[in-house]
Amino acid sequence: MSASHVLFDAPGPKGRRRILLLSILAIVVFIAAAIGALIQLQANKQLDPGKWVVYLRADYIAFLWKGLAGTLKATAVAALFAFPLGLLLALGRLASTRPISWAATAVIEFFRGVPMLLVVYAFLLLLPAYGVTFSRFWMLVIPMILVSAATTAEVFRAGINAVDKGQHEAAAVIGLSRTQAMRHVVLPQAIRLVMPSLILALVTLLKDSTLGYVVSYNELQFQGKTMVSITRYLLQTYVVVSLIYIVLNMILTRIALLLDARMKKRAARS
């Protein structure tokens, strides 16, 4: 039985016709709204080719590429630190020592509940008031690390709990300690299970990097904002920037889906 059948009954013939009718109506409304928007943009001369071909200029491409490089750098560095830290927090939360478990749980729940923007403002405004300063890059990346580590900690914890209990028992039978079983038996399987989710976490980190404009870090969103002040083309600039983000997210999502499909095939064979 599928999850949808557990949550609600399957629609009957009348329900399916109603769903089909509403779907067609929604598509028609969407197409009409899109056509109306294009007509309005054309009336305001926002679709003139001259306002779009400028983004094919070498200097404009180089300007946006600098922002894209900054975005990728911030995302990569944040992931490099956040994922191992998330694993440590997950292990801490699962630890049998209560003070360690409580401390890890407190860190996870705090940074999961606090919006990342507030963490960025803490590094931008609060810490400098007490003499603690960072470069623009780290004022963005450290909050990304803290927030992402808290969320990925729960991903790792779910992966560890998803490993069959028999694996723990088998490790104990061959004489492995709890720590050795976790390191050599459970963690390798758990990491393989959560790998698609970690790839999707990169998508979240990529989106979080757009907060670089708050600290004036030269990431893609900030470069787009600067380009608007140069070209005065607000719509065109943000459409181009949005398309770049969409392509990046599609690539990462595709990688996650391929990994997930590969792991399901491997599990089916085993």
Mean pLDDT: 85
Order of helices and strands: HHHHHHHHHH
Assign the CATH topology.
MetI-like fold
| General shape | globular
Please give the domain count.
Answer: 1
CATH-level-4 superfamily name: MetI-like
Head-to-tail CA distance between termini: 23 Å
Q: Tell me the name of the CATH class.
A: Mainly Alpha
Percentage of helical residues? Answer: over 70%
- Residue ranges: pLDDT <50 for 5 or more in a row? 1-7
Question: What structural category arises from helix and sheet content?
Answer: mainly alpha
Report on the architecture of this protein.
The chain has 10 helices and no strands. The chain has helices spanning 3-7, 13-43, 58-93, 98-113, 116-129, 136-162, 165-173, 178-208, 220-231, 234-269. The protein starts with a helix and ends with a helix.
Characteristic key phrases:
0% strand, MetI-like fold, globular, mainly alpha, 270 residues
Give the helices and strands, then pairings.
Elements: H1 3-7, H2 13-43, H3 58-93, H4 98-113, H5 116-129, H6 136-162, H7 165-173, H8 178-208, H9 220-231, H10 234-269
Brief characterization of the structure:
The chain is mainly α. The chain is built from 10 helices and no strands. It has one domain (56-269): MetI-like (MetI-like fold, Orthogonal Bundle).
